[in-house]
Amino acid sequence: MIFTEKWRTTLEKICIPIAALAVSLVIFGVFCAAAGANPFAVYASIYKAAFGSWFSFQNTLIRAAPLMLASLCTALPARLGLVIIGNEGAIVIGGLSAVAAGLSVQGAGPFVVQLAMALAGIVSGGVWIAAVGALRHYRGVNETISSLLLNYIAIALLNHMVGGPMRDPTSLNKPSSYPIPDADMLGNIPGTRVHFGLIYGIIACLIAYFLIQRTTFGFAARTVGGNIRAAKIAGLPVGKLTLIICFLAGSCAGLAGMVEVAAVHGRANESLNASYGYSSILVAFIARQNPVAAVFVSIILGGILASGGILQRAHQLPDATVLVFQGIVFLVILFSESLYGRLAIFKEGVKPQMPGQNLKPQT
Amino acid sequence: MSTRHPLHLNRRQIIRGILATTAFGVSSRLWTGCTPNTPPSATTPATPTNSASTGAVKPITMGFIYVGPKDDYGYNQAHALGKEGVSKLPWVKTVEQANVPETTEVQEAMRNMIEQDGATVLFPTSFGYFDPHILKLAQEYPEVQFFHCGGLYVDGKHPKNVGSYYGYIDEAQYIAGIVAAHTTKTGKLGFVAAKPIPQLIRNINSFTLGARSVNPKITTQVIFTGDWSLPVKEAEAANSMIDQGVDVLTCHVDSPKVVMETAEKRGVFCSGYHANQAILAPKGYITGAEWDWTNVYSRYAEMIRDGKTLMNGGISHLVRGGLKDGFCKLSNYGSVVGEAAKKDADAAKAKFIDGSMVIYKGELKDNTGKTVVASAKEYKQEDPELEKMNWLVEGVLGSATS
User: Fold this and answer.
1) Residue B327 belongs to some domain of the structure
2) Are A98 and A185 in contact, with CB atoms under 8 Å apart?
3) Backbone angles phi, psi at A95, to 5 degrees
4) Residue contact A327–B30, C-beta within 8 A
5) What CATH code is carried by the domain that includes residue B139?
6) How many structural domains comprise chain B?
7) Contact between residue B340 and residue B170 where contact means Cβ atoms under 8 Å apart
8) Are A316 and B44 in contact (CB under 8 A)?
9) Are B252 and B349 part of one and the same domain?
């Protein structure tokens, strides 16, 4: 009996997001038809551009890599019941500190430089989001708003630093920091054009999953997320948990910023603020804050983003089409969240049926 | 019997959903707007009617990449219009992609254009695409030519198949300054600027020098917003300057739309930048400094058709030009522009075209009173000294160190 109960819950967790994706595809198809493109041709193009061949799948993976790490910035605090959307700020701060650290140990060999950069990114991103957690816990400041506002502060700080104290005087028309030497850059995974950020992302997601689902620490965090008052009565250190989880969340996004700098740009400048943070919020929500699911969702979303080009070049659709698609997916997923535990077919005592046939509540 | 409806949302879920959606919508680029469809006819100019005459020439596929939407009334629109223009040539096939950020995404866009669309000539137009993205792809695809707008090519340091082009649009700004000086009643001009970088400072200085060549008492108030696309701050800057008595506004931001519309709404004059914005301010638009990329791209297309490439030395790696070479032009004068203004402006334009005009000649002081160009010293447009400009000329109110 317990076995089937578990099986049903798992099935529910898989079916609802997939159904939501399918519904958003249909809505998007209507949009495409309204914009004058054949929806089925568009679906085919999206598939081809995202997963059709190894060449295009690499494009998908390149886009997925920063999303995985950054999505943990939303996914981890969500287990504590916090909605944090400061991913972009943590990426920017992580990237900026990584450059500062990389430049200060310049010449110490690629391994040392990369390690220093990674540590700087992790610590600074972590402290950035931990500040949000502290504001929440000690001062009762709404964490969603404060983390969003910290994004703007981070971007302003980046612009100030690369335009002032850290500016390379030769970067005339695009203020940038001094570059990291090519030898110290993070390379690509051999045989591909995907950088190592992908591996970091997958590892970080697996660690996060293990931490949350398989340790007492994770159990404590989930208890706080479930009922904070009960957790306090049980004697759990809510403040400490909040700070640690927020630090871990921020450090993942900070690492994503470090990877952007060390593998792609080689220097800090305004390109660092490239909206990965905002897309990764979407990833965390679709994955229902599950780190392992975030890996797969990142790849799907990376695929959607990767298909943006072909929609413009082959179907003459507007450049915002891919954002419209992303927005539709986001809304449908958010509203599908309300269906958990409400569909009769995923409940005990009713035989499984095709989704959508029987939406009546169980007596 | 459960009383809850299966689709019932509880309050917390609704609040959370609305919060997150709003935050996402506000902070993402969803609001930057759509670019309407390009009619397919415009992108496929090689119609059967003219294929007979060009049958011998293999079509050249050119790829264009823009950093923002291609109907921004600004930088990207200017390039998109250039692409429209060049695509009318029968031997040119074009592909384009808009809203491509300066990340790995632009590398993938270039790669897809090369591999999937067979592009052999690429114009990634945003300044930030150059390093590291274009340089990386250029090494990977040595047979493809990359032309970058902004002029950063260094011989010996950068790959042979990379070239750069840029125009001295400050010449057009100088003339716009002349027109503005004739139009203003308060003697106060306003300039909404993005970042204090040399290219932009040069436009402010040229605009001011043009205005002060008519009336040396005129001042230009400058406000730096801090970034290329901050519509709210641009509107605030425009409004606050109008409140201070500024009655001619111009700008150098990615999309001048907000500044032009604000000026029109407040009943003051404005001078455009990047593209023609007359449609946004039919009453107050006096003129504007516009790019003419159609001309530049068509010339590149002709050279490539004739077998010249960057690699064989047929095309120069650094291409520059001003009004004379047709890199930039002025918007048609608005209805409020008087005869005297037109006469002065046309005279200055004629001098730019015959090459006798030098904007930066001594003695020039900056706005702190320091001499920046010694007397009897002349900097011609192509002088590299001008590309390092970090001072604001006398008559500009503001500071270049933000």
Assistant:
1) no
2) no
3) -65, -45
4) yes
5) 3.40.50.2300
6) 2
7) no
8) no
9) yes
Q: Which helix (H) or strand (E) holds B295?
A: helix B293-305
| Interface confidence (ipTM) of the complex | 0.82
The Cα B40–Cα B27 span in angstroms is 33
What single-letter amino acid sits at B221? Q
Tell which CATH architecture fits domain A54-305.
Orthogonal Bundle (1.10)
Inter-chain CB proximity B105 and A334 less than 8 Å: no
Task: Quote the strand ranges of A135-199, DSSP E.
Answer: none
Helix, strand, coil abundance in chain A, percent, nearest 5: 75, 0, 25
Nearest chain A residue (CA) to B202: A173
**Which chain B residue has the Cα nearest residue A334?**
B17
Distances (CA, A) of B240 to A141, A192, B19, B245, B399: 33, 53, 32, 9, 17
Beta-sheet pairing, B269-274 with B145-149: unpaired
Q: Looking at the domain assignment, is residue B145 inside a domain?
A: yes
Residue A61 pLDDT greater than 50, yes or no: yes
Residues of chain A positioned with their CB less than 8 A from the CB of B150: 173
Which residues touch B238 (CB under 8 Å, ≥6 apart)? Answer: B190, B192, B249, B251, B258, B259, B262, B263, B266
Amino acid at A23: V
Report phi then psi at B287, rounded to 5: -165, -165
Residues in chain A: 363
Which uninterrupted H or E stretch holds B396? strand B396-397
Which tokens is A309 given? Answer: 């080009």
Contact at CB, A159 and B227, closer than 8 angstroms? yes
Q: pLDDT tens for residues B185-237?
A: 999 999 999 988 888 999 999 999 999 999 999 999 999 998 888 999 999 99
Q: Which residues pair with B223 in a beta bridge?
A: B192
Give, in degrees to the nearest 5, the angle at Cα A303 between A301 and A304.
Answer: 65
* A211/chain B closest Cα distance in angstroms: 25
**Contacts of A319 by beta carbon, 8 Å cutoff, 6+ apart:** A308, A312, B34, B35, B69, B70, B97, B98, B99
